[in-house]
């Protein structure tokens, strides 16, 4: 690498560091400032010997700082810091592409609602005869904010310019338009504030050809070049001509025109200007000399300041995190990535038994209400074995065709999410590092969002469930007992819910009123009276159907009115629903108990109305369907879905790895910031040391 390339790299790293950490580096660079349309960009193009910048007539074209590193090379080429594409500056189409790319990058840098941006575009230009230096072209200073500009544009340009110019080792290349009145200059005041003694300012007067034609007194140009007209001082004063105002002119044509103009100019002939003060060639040499002089004087001092910064940061790390390795954001991300992938692999180590247990339990929780309320209870109230089986078969078929497979897949997907979340979030003991928590949560959410269950799962599941529910043959006593236990458990849970609902309806019984000093409300008293009346009716006819006839409602109402209790028919119906439900469930549980000895009758196909255990067979069918569904879903999970989820996680991690903003958002904290600072400062110091060594060798 050439010396200037090494130096430019240091500035690039420093530029990133400054943007992130708000430190001010004091390494030299040539800062090109001037009023808008003063010809700054044209001067830069003459120094770079190529028309590389976007052009516009009178409008603002430089919308963000452009750092141009000039170096000597056999071919005239340009390339961006973050791109490998070389633009051949001898070809017009490459020049047009480069100008377009610079304009695109400027517009990309400018945030919404702004006109200019402080973000720097970094460009390297190599070519024969180029003077080695680093120049920064800044947006032109303006006096008035015009329509279409952000209201703070003027202040933003001033603050960007000041930020670059207040570096005590920056060389200020102050560009002044010679064709306008000196009194209209804004930039000269700014420069005189930043460098009042003119120790690092080079003044450049552009458009001298127009000035010579238009200015009535040529001595005015002489006054400017001698530093007597503007309220500022400078190291050197130069007069240049950078074109005739035609944007399509080539650099060679402009250079020829400039040399021809000065050869014939009265200003030189009358010794108002000295020969070394004119032409961009002389300006380039002077700026380059000044730049390298400043570099040699200041670079070691800068290296020392970074050594001190590094020592301070290392000391802070040792005191705060003595047992932790310094890992920057990217290294932490890699570590987290491996941890996450290990946790996903753990999913494949969940035992089949565990999967099936949680799937079966979750599925029953999801479908139990439908099975009992919509299938079992309506069928059980038929009081006839044939009608019971017909009702059950029709309802099971409808359920399997429409809802059941979908519900099963939903349950499986939720179970997979829960297990995945459990592995991702369960603490890993003392070694657990909470710095990864936000990242893991984001990866988990994004992976789940992207995961879609296999579309064919429902169809295959429908066939399996249909076949399981069609089967009615219980092969052994063990299965029979298991079905009875399953049925009892389900009915006991419903009975408990019903008794709670009834208690809320009628209020506390005498025991609770006595022990806990609770009283019934007026409404609860009415419900209680109604309940007692309905229970009497049920005692008289234990095989009462599920619905009350209208004459029965009238009888209950009249009986209550005779005791001074006014009731509404709807209240009687509501109370009856709970009273009958409790009665029915208790009867069903008693019948279930009788069926414990019914397997022999079932096996021999005996017809005994007392021991027709069709409800046990129904619950066996449901239980078997749950087991087969859980087994099928477990196979889908372990064979397909876990692997697909793992693939999703990998893709999410790869996407996050490419997104530096996402990493900054998800990996935060003092420890991360300190490691990032240390990495940057070490990188800057190493590059500075390598540059200083190369600089000494060149001497």
UniProtKB/TrEMBL annotation:
The keyword Hydrolase applies. PROSITE patterns: G_DYNAMIN_2. The keyword Cytoplasm does not apply. It comes from Sus scrofa (Pig). Residues 24-300 form the Dynamin-type G domain. It comes from the Eukaryota. Oligomeric complex consisting of membrane-bound and soluble forms of OPA1. Interacts with RCC1L; RCC1L acts as a guanine nucleotide exchange factor (GEF) for OPA1 by exchanging bound GDP for free GTP. Interacts with CHCHD3 and IMMT; these interactions occur preferentially with soluble OPA1 forms. Interacts with PRELID1. Keywords: Apoptosis, Coiled coil, Disulfide bond, GTP-binding, Hydrolase, Lipid-binding, Membrane, Mitochondrion, Mitochondrion inner membrane, Nucleotide-binding, Transit peptide, Transmembrane, Transmembrane helix. It catalyses: GTP + H2O = GDP + phosphate + H(+). Its EC number is 3.6.5.5. GO terms for molecular function: GTP binding; GTPase activity; lipid binding. One of its GO terms (biological process) is apoptotic process. It is an enzyme of class 3 (hydrolase). GO terms for cellular component: mitochondrial inner membrane; mitochondrial intermembrane space. It is found in: Mitochondrion inner membrane; Mitochondrion intermembrane space. This is Dynamin-like GTPase OPA1, mitochondrial. Residues 635-662 form a coiled coil. It is a single-pass membrane protein.
